[in-house]
Amino acid sequence: MLLKKVGGILDKRYFTIGMAGHIDHGKTSLTKALTNVDTDRLKEEKERQISIELGFAPLYEDEEIQISVIDVPGHERFIRQMIAGVAGIDLVVLVVAADEGVMPQTEEHLDILGFLGIRNGIVAITKIDRVEQEFIELVKEDIFEELAGTVFEDAPYVLVDSLSGKGIEDLKDLIIHTLKQQEMRDIRGAFRLPIDQVFTVKGQGTVVRGTVYEGTVEEGQPLKLMPKSVDVRARQLQVHHQPAKRAFAGQRAAINLSGVAKEDIERGDVLVSSEHFIVTRTIDVAIRVAPDLEHIVKQRMPIKCHIGTAEVMGRIVFFDRNELKEENGEILCQLRLDEEIVTKRNDRFIIRRPSPQETIGGGWVIDPHGEKYRYGNDTIEELEKKKAGTPKDRIIAALAEAKALPVFELMKRTALDETTLDSELSNPEFILFNGKDYTLQSLVHQLEEEVYDRLSDFHQAQPMKAGINKAELLQTIDKAVPKQLGEYVIEQGTANGAFGRRDQFVFLADFSPHVPPNWQKRTENLMEELKKDGLKVRYFQDYVSNAGIPDHLVGDLKHHLENEGLIVPLDDQYYWYGDHFHHAVEKLKQNTGASFEVGDAKDVLDLSRKYMIPFLERLDAAGFTKRDENRRIWL
């Protein structure tokens, strides 16, 4: 098998297998026979270093694979440890004693394995030296009959005896061969480790244990303890009693933490490397019910939810029924929990009745960011859409509704993990703008079309105006569109040559302000008359009236002629023909020194004060001159 290199580190695959089965069917003895480790002999009070939790032992390791074993003797611990992650358990060895066959606890374990989505299994028929061969054949028939319709229906089986060693190597070889065919775990995503034990080691401080659910952790790495949001650091790591620089998805790890006391951590807390993991108390779920449910499950009934390593009380909320007894298919509903948990889409869980104790069923998280919904088919239809949608579909739906969202909000709305989201967002259908928000390429195109149409309509209605003020244009875009997205659309349209910008105005790139054709001739007459009068002009309104231009066009016409430099205002009454104004400036400059007074200007231009004073003030305003008491200085 070819191994990949990532960041210079040779990838290795890490797996943890679990032992399941009825009490006293030989799980611990089988673990010892496979690993040469007695998982019952390790006692907490004897520990002097960071070490792997009781019940865990190394099974096999070579250059491409490492396998650990969980031996969980008690039923309650079995549930908690199995849920310590589907990512924490990759294969289950179902242990059935040859002298007893399938027992009630075996059946319940099978149900739980199915709810947790575990599909990879091997049946180990133990204690074969205690019975005759004929009896073994009867037990095998009984087992295959009981396993029909379960996740172990087609599982291979091995006959073993832990004391004599019969079949042990065969079982070990089968485990190794099966896992070597299994797909590599994703160690590149954000790190997550649900904590199942916390204690202190003298001289080292707080230590937590758990199975690395996903990602990678390194010695010295800053982490976050969730849901409390406490900043911590991984001071030291150990895997199977050995110091390690890194721990990977699928491994059992003990982590010595700095920045937090033992009293501030509890089972069910989660160590993560990213703040993007969702903390929630309301999760939309798809569940399946145990086949032999003894009691009716009623609307809003108290339940205990086992998810990650957390055990949280809560209530189950249905949207299409008020009670549940038997159901073969998936039921879409919601769990409203009493405490916050850290979870994401596809995480598996078990729900149990607190009293009388009973496994109700289990399933997977559709959306960790559940909200309050109305009872009825509309809600069920929405949950169906959430359940069925591909990652891409869910991102598109979220952005179509919100128009633009940052990554953290997208994670909440789509129930996608950071790694999946990053991969999907690399698709050109999604656009990152302003450095933090994503939107749809199709939405940007749609908004560009809206802006284009708005500008086109504006130019047609107001051909003499330079364009629309940007702030005003942004207000005309769909009010649901964030302002920064509107600005991005205008920037992109300008960059690709569809729009133009001048100061605060936006216009179509191929547009030039112009006088409407039906008023073109009259405007030309106005300009000819203004030009003919030189510097001794009349009120501008006189020229407008003489040209027959209606009052409602005067404002736009003046602005247009000013913007084009065809006329220059002296004040709000007098306007000069543009060329005349510039000739006057040049003539005055050539016939005065570095500075001049009003009288000097009158002599040069032969103008009365009613023109001269506004003209000189215009020179000041335009930056040609600066007034210093009675003199003006050329700039």
TrEMBL record:
<dbReference type="InterPro" id="IPR036390">
    <property type="entry name" value="WH_DNA-bd_sf"/>
</dbReference>
<dbReference type="Pfam" id="PF00009">
    <property type="entry name" value="GTP_EFTU"/>
</dbReference>
<dbReference type="GO" id="GO:0003723">
    <property type="term" value="F:RNA binding"/>
</dbReference>
<keyword id="KW-0963">Cytoplasm</keyword>
<dbReference type="InterPro" id="IPR050055">
    <property type="entry name" value="EF-Tu_GTPase"/>
</dbReference>
<keyword id="KW-0251">Elongation factor</keyword>
<dbReference type="GO" id="GO:0005737">
    <property type="term" value="C:cytoplasm"/>
</dbReference>
<dbReference type="InterPro" id="IPR015191">
    <property type="entry name" value="SelB_WHD4"/>
</dbReference>
<dbReference type="GO" id="GO:0003746">
    <property type="term" value="F:translation elongation factor activity"/>
</dbReference>
<dbReference type="InterPro" id="IPR000795">
    <property type="entry name" value="T_Tr_GTP-bd_dom"/>
</dbReference>
<keyword id="KW-0547">Nucleotide-binding</keyword>
<dbReference type="InterPro" id="IPR009001">
    <property type="entry name" value="Transl_elong_EF1A/Init_IF2_C"/>
</dbReference>
<dbReference type="InterPro" id="IPR005225">
    <property type="entry name" value="Small_GTP-bd"/>
</dbReference>
<comment type="function">
    <text>Translation factor necessary for the incorporation of selenocysteine into proteins. It probably replaces EF-Tu for the insertion of selenocysteine directed by the UGA codon. SelB binds GTP and GDP.</text>
</comment>
<dbReference type="InterPro" id="IPR036388">
    <property type="entry name" value="WH-like_DNA-bd_sf"/>
</dbReference>
<dbReference type="InterPro" id="IPR015190">
    <property type="entry name" value="Elong_fac_SelB-wing-hlx_typ-2"/>
</dbReference>
<feature type="domain" description="Tr-type G">
    <location>
        <begin position="12"/>
        <end position="183"/>
    </location>
</feature>
<keyword id="KW-0342">GTP-binding</keyword>
<dbReference type="GO" id="GO:0001514">
    <property type="term" value="P:selenocysteine incorporation"/>
</dbReference>
<dbReference type="InterPro" id="IPR027417">
    <property type="entry name" value="P-loop_NTPase"/>
</dbReference>
<keyword id="KW-0648">Protein biosynthesis</keyword>
<dbReference type="InterPro" id="IPR004161">
    <property type="entry name" value="EFTu-like_2"/>
</dbReference>
<dbReference type="InterPro" id="IPR004535">
    <property type="entry name" value="Transl_elong_SelB"/>
</dbReference>
<dbReference type="InterPro" id="IPR057335">
    <property type="entry name" value="Beta-barrel_SelB"/>
</dbReference>
<dbReference type="Pfam" id="PF25461">
    <property type="entry name" value="Beta-barrel_SelB"/>
</dbReference>
<dbReference type="GO" id="GO:0003924">
    <property type="term" value="F:GTPase activity"/>
</dbReference>
<dbReference type="Pfam" id="PF09106">
    <property type="entry name" value="WHD_2nd_SelB"/>
</dbReference>
<protein>
    <recommendedName>
        <fullName>Selenocysteine-specific elongation factor</fullName>
    </recommendedName>
</protein>
<dbReference type="GO" id="GO:0005525">
    <property type="term" value="F:GTP binding"/>
</dbReference>
<dbReference type="InterPro" id="IPR009000">
    <property type="entry name" value="Transl_B-barrel_sf"/>
</dbReference>
<dbReference type="Pfam" id="PF09107">
    <property type="entry name" value="WHD_3rd_SelB"/>
</dbReference>
<dbReference type="Pfam" id="PF03144">
    <property type="entry name" value="GTP_EFTU_D2"/>
</dbReference>
